[in-house]
Specification:
By secondary structure, this protein is mainly beta. It has helices spanning about 1-15, 220, 310-315, 530-535; strands spanning about 20, 30, 40, 40-45, 55-60, 65-70, 90, 95, 100-105, 110-120, 135-140, 150-160, 165-170, 180-185, 190-200, 200-205, 210-215, 230-235, 240-245, 270-275, 295-300, 305-310, 335-340, 350-360, 375-380, 395-400, 410-415, 445-450, 455-460, 470-475, 485-490, 490-495, 500-505, 515, 525-530. Strands 11, 12, 13, 14, 15, 16, 17, 18 and 19 form a nine-stranded antiparallel sheet that branches. Strand 21 (about 295-300) and strand 22 (about 305-310) form a beta hairpin. The longest helix has 15 residues, at about 1-15. It is globular.
């Protein structure tokens, strides 16, 4: 109980000492967090994102500007009062269902929200909008896509307020202040619609191939087992999507058999592709990533599987070599798989982030006997923490050696000790969620950032993947608008503190780190300092 009181007092003290400066735009600037809540990381800028619960940030360079795309969860209610959470957009004067916010972060000290694209119909205050939600977003330049135009395209999820109306859609965000529909639900022509659910997709900007996550309303009738799977599309021309095939962990498809030692087939959470095995055209070439692979993460928070797939065997020509364009009639969910890591049943695979081929410093001996023994191929696998007040099995981040791709092996783990700062007593979730997902300098193969819910974001030195070391962290301060998170603590139900829930993290090539909050606090832009900064300089 003493730890609980200390944790709650700490939250109150942090709240009292938050300095909020209101600009003429109505954007609040958060104070630097308490010194005990940060190490080798500092706050650069802040935007409250209209206090919308946020999932995925993506930073995209558009000419000389840097635009951050923030995907929002469905609009919720206060868990104590059941009152609607904030939905007012001062740019339009309307209450809007949650959707996607576009923020100019060219000056990271002064991020400016340019537009918000709602999912559903805005209403005049004080009317309350429907839930909405567009938590996942990817962005590609038309000049990079095979269409070779001068536009910028956004692929996002669409969470309908009515059953089986979820979808994926595309917007033209060339002018981020005035996005235009390309393939939208509102226009009756989404990339794919009539879905039960959606989630975290991946879009290859050089080839146009998109690995889209969801499950159709018709899938149960066709014999698909529960949960999302992959629908692969050719989005070379975003206005004219072409469906190629389905993909799932073998056993989820109609007629499939549940894998041995599983009680159900783990559904997909999200994929990450390294694109074609072509060093001449693949922009990821030269980063150290293993090309021609797709890493699929299944299970999310339990019964996890990280699957390595040969892209050439998955996709038909001209995208791959021996894959089939078999629409929904695919029956082969084995041939393209190279290997899989089967995790313990208490951890899942939320994100499978390929670090590629790395030299392990301690494996370099100087004895003249090192040939072929110093480099390893590494994938970072995070399991998504859930529950409140540590009511679930402890979730970890797994450094996985996939040098022999048919036999992946977890070689080390990373975790934040719960006792290090009373995290189990702060409320909300404690544990990993996701890593950043940007290839190239300055962070790739040097520092991986892991969002950690009430423990903020953690900067992990991965240069020796067999011995990952935390070199920095930042836990944002709560604001007046930080939402409540309820749970049972020491037998007392509905304990509901205000608590940070850092959801996802992104980086850019300038060296800035972007974190967003699930509990409505907003966007924090960070930079490294001290020892951590020395790693990437």
């Amino acid at each position: 109980m003493k730890k609980l009181l200390n944790g709650l007092v700490s939250s109150v003290v942090s709240f009292v000492f938050i300095a909020l400066f209101i600009w003429s735009t109505g954007i609040a600037l958060a104070a630097q967090s308490d010194p005990s809540e940060r190490k080798n990381m500092a706050l650069v800028g802040f935007n409250d994102l209209q206090n919308r619960s946020t999932y995925q940030p993506v930073v995209h360079q558009q000419g000389v500007r840097y635009i951050l795309y923030a995907g929002h969860h469905a609009l919720g209610t206060n868990p104590v009062t059941n009152a609607p959470l904030p939905s007012f957009n001062p740019l339009t004067g309307m209450n809007e269902p949650n959707g996607t916010s576009l923020v100019d972060v060219s000056d990271p000290r002064n991020p400016v929200l340019l537009s918000h694209i709602p999912v559903g119909t805005p209403v005049k205050p004080p009317a309350v909008p429907t839930a909405g939600g567009a938590q996942m977003v990817r962005v590609c330049d038309g000049s990079t896509l095979p269409i070779h135009d001068n536009k910028v395209y956004m692929l996002r999820t669409y969470t309908g307020s009515v059953a089986n109306t979820s979808a994926h859609e595309i917007w033209d965000t060339t002018n981020p202040s005035k996005p235009l529909p390309v393939r939208t639900v509102a226009g009756g022509n989404p990339v794919i619609g009539n879905l039960i659910d959606t989630h975290k997709s991946w879009w290859e900007c050089d080839t146009g191939i998109a690995y889209i996550v969801g499950n159709r309303a018709t899938d149960p009738a066709l014999g698909w087992k529960p949960g999302n799977h992959i629908m692969i599309f050719d989005l070379s021309n975003p206005a004219s999507p072409v469906f190629i095939r389905d993909w799932a962990l073998d056993g989820q498809q109609p007629g499939g058999v549940i894998p041995p030692n599983f009680t159900s087939v783990p559904p997909i959470h999200g994929p990450i592709s390294t694109g074609p095995n072509n060093t001449n055209t693949n922009p990821i070439a030269g980063t150290g990533a293993t090309l021609g692979r797709v890493y699929f993460a299944y299970g999310i928070g339990s019964n996890g599987v990280m699957q390595i797939v040969d892209r050439d065997k998955l996709l038909p020509p001209p995208f791959g070599k021996t894959g089939l364009a078999c629409g929904v009639t695919c029956t082969d969910y084995k041939t393209a798989e190279i290997g899989r890591l089967v995790m313990n049943p208490d951890n899942g695979a939320h994100t499978s982030w390929p670090l590629g081929t790395m030299t392990v410093p301690d494996f370099v001996t100087g004895t003249g006997n090192d040939a072929g023994r110093t480099t390893r191929d590494i994938v970072v696998v995070t399991s998504e923490a859930g529950g409140a007040f540590c009511s679930e099995f402890r979730h970890l981040t797994f450094m996985t050696d996939v040098t022999t791709e048919g036999r992946p092996q977890s070689v080390s783990t990373f975790q934040v000790p719960a006792a290090s700062d009373g995290f189990c007593f702060r409320g909300g979730r404690f544990g990993p969620h996701a890593t950043n997902e940007e290839f190239g300098p300055p962070f790739y193969q040097n520092i991986t950032f892991i969002s950690y819910f009430n423990a903020g974001v953690r900067a992990v030195d991965v240069r020796d993947p067999y011995n990952p070391q935390e070199v920095g962290f930042y836990i944002p301060a709560v604001t007046a608008d930080t939402d409540l998170r309820c749970g049972t603590l020491n037998g007392v139900p509905n304990v509901c503190p205000q608590v940070i829930q850092t959801n996802n993290v992104a980086t850019d090539n300038r060296g800035f780190i972007y974190i967003v909050d699930r509990a409505n606090t907003g966007l924090h832009i960070l930079r490294l300092t001290g020892k951590a900064l020395g790693i990437v300089q």
